[in-house]
Amino acid sequence: MGKIIKVSGPLVVADGLADAGMADVVKVGAQGLKGEILTMTGDTASIQVYEETAGLGPGAEVYTTGAPLSVELGPGMLENIYDGIQRPLTEIRAIAGETIARGIDIPALNREKKWHFVPVKQAGDRISGGDIIGTVEETSALTHRIMVPHGVVGTLKSITEGDFTVTDTVAVAELERGGERALTMMQTWPVRIGRPYKQKFLPDTPMQSGQRVIDTLFPIAKGGTAAVPGPFGSGKTVVQHALAKWSDVDVVVYIGCGERGNEMTDVLMEFPELQDPRTGEPLMKRTVLIANTSDMPVAAREASIYTGITIAEYFRDMGYDVAVIADSTSRWAEALREMSGRLEEMPGEEGYPAYLASRLAQFYERAGCVQCLSSEVRRGSLTAIGAVSPPGGDTSEPVSQATLRIVKVFWGLDSGLAHARHFPAINWLNSYSLYMDNLRGWFEKNLGRSFLENRAKAVAILQQESELQEIVKLVGQDSLSPADRLTMETAKMIREDYLQQNAFVDIDNYSSYDRQSILLDIILQYDAQCRRAIAGGADLGKLISIEVRDRIGRAKSVPEEEYPTAYSAIAADMAEQIKEAAQHD
Amino acid sequence: MIKEYRTIREISGPLMVVKNVEGVTYDELAEIELPNGETRRCKVLEVDGDRAVVQLFESSTGINLAESKVRFLGHGMQLGVSPDMLGRVFDGMGRPIDGGPEILAEEYLDINGLPMNPAARDYPSEFIQTGISAIDGLNTLVRGQKLPIFSGSGLPHASLAAQIARQAKVLGSGEQFAVVFAAIGITFEESEYFVNEFRRTGALDRTVLFSNLADDPAVERISTPRMALTAAEYLAFQQDMHVLVILTDITNYAEALREVSAARKEVPGRRGYPGYLYTDFASIYERAGRRKGKKGSITMIPILTMPEDDITHPIPDLTGYITEGQIILSRDLYLKNILPPIDVLPSLSRLKDKGIGEGKTREDHSGTMNQLFAAYSAGKDASELMTILGEAALSDTDKLYAKFAEAFEKEYVGQGQSTDRSIEDTLDIGWKLLSILPKSELKRIKLEYIDKYLPKQEG
Lengths: 585, 459
Known about the structure:
Largest interface: A-B, 82 and 82 residues
Number of helices of chain B: 13
Shape of chain B: elongated
Oligomer: heterodimer
Mean pLDDT of chain B: 92
Mean pLDDT of chain A: 93
Strand content of chain B: 15-25%
C-alpha cells in the first residue's frame, strides 16, 4: 500500500509502492480512481490518473492491482460505447446520470447478459492459442468467434452448447504442461502490447469506401495505414464518418479521441439508422465506439487509442477485416505532451516528448494484413486511419511529420476546397497512396485494365489544369488553345461531377467501384471524343454546351438500381450529340 | 476544524507557496486573510508533501508573508445558484455587484462542472432563426450549438452578438429563455454596450451578467467563464430554460491562462500558451449542448479577437477545433460598409445539416446553400481575375459570376444591423440572386426545386 506525496493535475506521485511493477494499474484515493504507473524510482511511482484528481492530497492511499492496463475481450463489445479505458458509457449513464462522476468501476463486458454459445470443436480435440472453439451470434451482422486465449495448449476435456454469461465456463481444457483450465468467452489483453499473429503479408485488396476521390485516386488497402490531416473546418470528421459508415470491412472501431461530444452523439444516433450497403444490417451492429471527448480526463485520452486498437486486433484475430478510425491523433499527442510536461521530461520539438514519433509508429505498425495465430489457416486485416489536426493547418508540425513518415496513404484536406464547399476536400494535387502498385493486380482483375488507364488520365488532366490555371491567371483564358480549354473543361467535370461527393445526400453518399469506373469512363470519353472533334475543326463552345453535359453533372444522384441503364444511355447520347455538334460546323 | 496557516513562503505573480500544510488536496479552494481583515481567494495548483502551490484569483498587493493567514476550505470553487440570479450582475468571481441583496443559494455547484457523458447528449437539431441571412441561410445555428465569432480589433463583433441575442428565436415555440453574459477582460464601454442593449430590448431581467472588466485582476478571468457556465447549466438543466451564453473575449481568458502558466514555469506550447490550452478550452466550450431527457439547452457564442486577424493563431485555431463551426468577420467587407461583415466562405456551422430542410426550414435550403457557397466562391475568383486582367479576359459565365458575387455581398450579407429577416425571406433572396446565373450552372440543386422556386425570367 502506497501513499500520495504529490498531486499536480492528472499526475500523482506516491511512495511505498515497492510491490508495484512498471505500467501497473493502480487505484488512487478513497474513490479508487484508476491510474497507471509511468515511472518508478525506488518505491516512488509517478502515476497518470485517468480521472479528475481534484480532492486528492498527500497521504491518500494508493494500491496496485498488479496488472497492466488491459481490456476485456468477448461478446458484447459491438454496438457499445466505451470511454478511453473501456468503461461502458451507457451503463455509466444509468448509474450517474448525464455527467461522468468519478470512481465508477463497471466491467466493460456485461456480466449478466447470456449469449448462446455453439461449439465448433469437440471434447478430445487438440487446441492451442487462437483456435476457434465456438461461436456466438453477437449481432445480426457479425458472428463472434470464441478463441482459445494465447498461451493455452492442450486437449479439450469438455465443451458445452448453451446460454452463458461471459464469465461462465464453456469448455475445459487439459493443458499440455499439466493441469486443467476452464475456458470462458472472455479474455483480457494488455492494451500497450500488440496481439500476436503468425505472419504479416503485404496488403493486396483495396478497402472500398464508396468515396470516389479515395477509391479512385488514393485508395487504401485492407491492412493499410492512412492519415487525414487538415485544418479545422476542412471536413476531417465528415471523411472519417464516411469511412466508418461505408468501408467494406466486417468491424469498425471508431475512436473519438479528444474531440467533440456531439460528434460521438451523432454517430450513436445515426449509425443504428443507416444500413450497410452490403449486408443490409444497421451499421451500428458492426461498430465499437470509444469516446474520450475533449472535456473528459486527458490521461484516459492517451489510453483510448490503445484500447481501440487492441479491440480491433481481437476481431482481426477471428479472421475479420477490421478498420480502426482514430479522430484525432493530434489530441492523443497533446495528451502525451501534457503528461510528459508534468513529468518534467526534456521536451523535444514544440514541447512534444522525444518519443512521440516512436509511439506513433508503434500504433500504426499494429495495422496489417496477417495470418492469424492459430492451428487453422485464417487471414484477417486491420486497417488504421488517423486524423491529424495540425495547428493552423500547417503540416510541418511534429505530429503530422511523424505520422507522414509511417503511413502509406495521405489524404490532405484543403481549406480552400472546403471554403468553396468542395467536399470531400481532399486535395488531389498533394495527396498520395503508396498502395497503387500492390493493388494493381486486384484492379486489373476486377475492374479491367481500362480503369487504371482512366485513373492515370484523370490524374494527368488534373495536374495539367493546375498548370493551365497559372497561365490563365497571368494572361487570361483567351490565350489558351481549344485543346487546352477542353482540358480545363474536363478537369472541371472531374472535379465537380466526379470527385465532389455529398456525404449528406442519400444516393451520393456511397458509390460502388463499378459505378465509379463507368462514370469516370464517361467523362474521359467525353474528353477523348471532343478532342477528336476539335482536331477536325469543331467549335469548342458548342461541344461544351451539349445537353448531355447537364446529365453527366447529375449522374451521381441517379438512383442505385437505375444507374447501369442511365449511364449507358448517357454514353450513347453523348457520342450522338458530340457528333452532331461537330457536324454543324 | 479548519486550520489556519501563517506559513506563506513565497509570492510571485499570481502564485503563492504555503509550507507545512497538512491534509490539503488538489484543486481545493483557500482563503487568505490579510492583516487588515480583508479576505481573498485562491486555489491549490499542486501539493508536494507539505508544500502547496496556490494560485491567487485576486491581486497579491498587500499580502504580507508574515502576517497573512491561509485557510484551506476543503472544497473546490463553488457558485451558489438560484433562479433569482436572473436580472442580476456579478463580478468575475460570482459576487453580486449591482447593489442588490446576496443570492440565497438553493445549491452550491462546483464551477468546473463534470464532463458530459457522450451517451447522454442529445444531438442539437432545432433551428434557431437569428434573422441574419449569412447565418440562417448559410451557417445555420441550432439549439445547443457552440458557434464562436472570430473577429479582429475594431470589427463590430459586439453588435453582431447583440443582434443575435436580440433576434434569436426558435420558430413556433414560446419556451423560457435566458441569456448568460460573461464579460472577460473587456472594457467598461464594451460591457455597457451589451447591458444597454439588453435593457433596451427588455432582455435584462432574463439575463445573468458576470463582469470581469479590463481593470479587474487578470487571474479572476480564469474563473469567470466557469462561473457563467455553472449558472447556465443550472438554468438549462435544472430550470428547463433555453440559455444563450455569450462569452467575450476569449482572447483575454487565454492570456490570463498564459500568465499563470508562465508563472509556474511550465514548458510552453505555441506562442507561449500552455500545452494544455486545447484541453482547457474544451472544458469550457464542451459545456454547451443538450442532454437527453432535459428540456433546456445551452447555446454558446464565444467571441474572440484574432491577434492581427490571424486565424492560425493558437486561440482561434484551437477554438475552431473544438467548437461546432465559426462565424468569421472580415475587415474587407467592413471597409466596404457591408454589415454585418460576415465572411461566409470560411465561416461554417457544423451542425447545420441536421437543423435545416423540410419541416425545419424549407426543403430547398440545403441545395441552395451549397449552390450559393459555390457560386460566391467562383464569383470571387472571377472578380479577382477581373482586377488583374480586366473584364475582357473573363468568359461570359465568369462575368455573371462576378456580378453575382457583388450582388450577394450587398443584398444577402449586407442586410444591416437592424434588419430581422425570416428564413423564407433569406431563402427567397438567395433564389433571386441565383437567377443571375444560367440555369445550367445550378447543378447542386434538385431540378424540382429549381422549377418550383427559381424566379421566372421576365420576357
